[in-house]
């Protein structure tokens, strides 16, 4: 959500900033509705003050035995006017909300302009691409040959874009998540959370998924939504709160299932585990002081990178352009891991600074030390990492000519010392 005061004071700048996100100029329309809203509010307040004054006069006149009929008639007229202006103020406020909630966040000054992923900018590349003996296979061919990645079973149970993992790969998914959680909590200062996977409308509204992206979500018959990412409940832990400055930063992490309808993804990644309706992810969320959110983004990105480094995976960091950033993001780094089977980099994490965009929607604030009033917090989120895509990267990068998959050193303590995943017997 955007700051109306900023729009009033900087309408041309606001339109220019939205233009970078591919959004047409709207400040004139916003300010017209805002002026009508404020005018109704002013008249409403003036009428209230007049009514209060008259009420006192009526009491005085009656106490003195005088005739207060004319004053009472005026009060009745004011009541009708107050009701009318109050309704007008609500109507214009609702219209403003509809407009503002549909506008994306503005991009930071150093974010490159662009239309899509082709305009993203590489910040750095880390690691050497592995030399795979023979033709590199994709994860689904390797997983099916191991007898531990069953897409037919997933389709039998649930339909397309589901998978059943078995044996060593099922254990590897759990091992990856535990490794990530231990690293983020024990070394990087994140507090582990186990949040609900079902949330209410206002929880998704606060983080920007509703109303714009309702088609991307799964909804239950009794009014709940399945979370598309743990960012939603983790960020919303501070919804409506007034924190103290000394409370900041708050850093949360969670391993949860995530559910996405993949609306608009027809024909994309139809084979394999890259794009599933259900997947698991270790999420990172930070709630910060406005002055420190930029450095927190760098910190969060480094935390996610460290997981890739310890797993020995080659990756690159991309700064997303204005046309490829998420709706609520002001600046985003994508981590893209190298997949030998696809012979390309694929996204495995997005780390975003949302500034006060979500804080305003959630009414999440803090009270500055020694200051008056409150300020909106800044929020950040990132994958630390997507667990399924991390497993895909391990399978493809650690594949062996005999069809086995070597277990990275960092995961072996979480897999009972297992060094290789071999085909299941029978």
Question: What do you see in this structure?
Answer:
There is one protein chain. With 426 residues, this protein is an alpha+beta fold. It has helices at residues 4-9, 11-20, 27-63, 69-101, 139-145, 151-157, 167-186, 201-207, 231-235, 293-310, 357-362, 387-397, and strands at residues 121-126, 149-150, 164-165, 191-192, 198-199, 218-219, 225-226, 242-244, 250-259, 278-288, 315-319, 331-339, 344-353, 365-367, 375-376, 378-386, 405-406, 420-421. The model has no long low-confidence stretch (mean pLDDT 95). It is built from 12 helices and 18 strands. Helix 7 packs across helix 12 (387-397). The protein has 2 domains: 4-101, Helix Hairpins, CATH 1.10.287.40; 117-421, 2-Layer Sandwich (BirA Bifunctional Protein, domain 2), CATH 3.30.930.10. The radius of gyration is 27 Å and the shape is elongated. Helix content is 39%, strand content 20%.
Please write out the topology.
Elements: H1 4-9, H2 11-20, H3 27-63, H4 69-101, E1 121-126, H5 139-145, E2 149-150, H6 151-157, E3 164-165, H7 167-186, E4 191-192, E5 198-199, H8 201-207, E6 218-219, E7 225-226, H9 231-235, E8 242-244, E9 250-259, E10 278-288, H10 293-310, E11 315-319, E12 331-339, E13 344-353, H11 357-362, E14 365-367, E15 375-376, E16 378-386, H12 387-397, E17 405-406, E18 420-421
Parallel strand pairs: 4-9, 8-14
Antiparallel strand pairs: 1-11, 2-3, 5-7, 6-7, 9-10, 10-16, 11-12, 12-13, 13-16, 14-15, 17-18
Helix pairs in contact: 3-4, 5-12, 7-12
Keywords:
about 425 residues; alpha+beta; Helix Hairpins; BirA Bifunctional Protein, domain 2; 2 domains; 8-stranded mixed β-sheet; 3-stranded antiparallel β-sheet; 12 helices; 18 strands; elongated
